[in-house]
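Contributing: when you submit paired examples, paste them exactly as shown. First protein:
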Amino acid sequence: MTNEEKLKLITRNLEETLTKEELKALIASETPIKAYIGYEISGKPHLGSGLLQLQIVKDLVDAGVECTIFIADWHTWINKKLDGEFETIHRLGRDFWKEAMIAGYLCIGGNPNDLHFIQGTDLYKENPDYWTTMVEVSQNTTLARMQRSITIAGKKEGDSVDFALLLYPAMQAADIFTMQINLAFAGMDQRKAHVIAKDVAMAIKTHPLKDSNGNQIKPVAIHNHLLMGLTKPSVWPIPEEKTEEIKTALKMSKSIPGSAVFIFDEPEVIQKKLNDAFAPEGETSYNPVLDWVKHLIFFEPTTFTISRDEKWGGDLEYTTYEDLEKDYAEKKLHPQDLKKAVAQWLIEKLEPARKYFEDPKRKAALEEIERLTVR
């Protein structure tokens, strides 16, 4: 694979690369590329974390990148997820989240042996000077910036939070340097932590990032699109002056009933969620079903078939998202036909995850997660 082909594969389905020139230089330097993506153990993975992000991870692996799945048990504890008990969080990170990521990777045809997993607890035990790096990060940023960055933990800027949560952004940046990550990957909601890591990189002395020539470098950061949730926006139509505010609220959420499809959902659950999904006829903006078609189904070049009764014109086949969106905008494709087709695609795509979690130990861990996150 040429450098240009590697660059194209790594960046082909991203929302943002910080920066593309830095990534080009990293590839050209022949420095081994080490990427990671970190997860709190906060519930069942939905299509964003358990499918879309793992599709990008597979692209990284196929491009020759070493990929680490970081199971952030300390961050989960700081953020008071599950029952708030560290022992529970640590155990389910091992028994549930790691297995869930393997299940999702199987769904997109990946080989789990290509992935490297590490929990925060293990990283910090193996690297006691991690805490020195965290202090270095903290010395080179400000309290105000940390307060602005708590959005990476799912909080709103200005929220009254306990002090521990202010450690979260500095820890996330220190994770990058301690693991020697030169390609940090996450959703757009984690952007602030990655920018902190980039901004402090040249001041880090304990775990500095260096290229193959010994030059100190900044980590490259790549971010994926955040899938929309299936529920109707709180305001519709969306007024122009509130576009950005409402766009943030539209992302798929584990905590909003009907918003997300989880990778373990049974076929009838998937069908119901898609049947109830917000998808106004002819509307292509802020349409979650179209959003999923674009970012999941057409992630890879494919032919997407929509089955219809002959009296409604028979089956439709699409090889590009643009053609499908055009037909939807012109009302040649009805929302219910699209919803049924998307539901069927997901049912088939997620079958390996459902099958993998038929194992009694994995099933018990899934049931425990469900009990701890029921609302």
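Second protein:
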Amino acid sequence: MTVTSAQRQEKYRNRFLIEQNGPNPFRKKTTIKINLPYRTKISVIITNAYGKVVDKMISSIQNAGTYDLEFRAEELPQGTYFCHVVADNFCESKEMELAK
């Protein structure tokens, strides 16, 4: 996991948000952008189409802000993956396509 940005952005300031990864479909790596409106415990987990966890990107308390998370999938087979974000009373998932 690489957190490349922890800068607050006005348009996302008051809500939880997970944006669709980019690029999608992706090869070796992709970026997932999330926003936290306040300091909270957050889990960001990547699963395959069968629900098996392939990466636990974050499972800790994080400060408010917008984060760009880089997911690397060099060792994974092509297919459908899901990014699950759970924080406080927020839970959302996004579908991601890995192309080889």
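If you have annotations for the second protein, write them as plain sentences, like these:
The domain at 3-98 is CATH 2.60.40.1930 (Immunoglobulin-like).
Strands lie at 3-7, 17-18, 29-36, 40-48, 53-62, 65-72, 79-87, 90-98.
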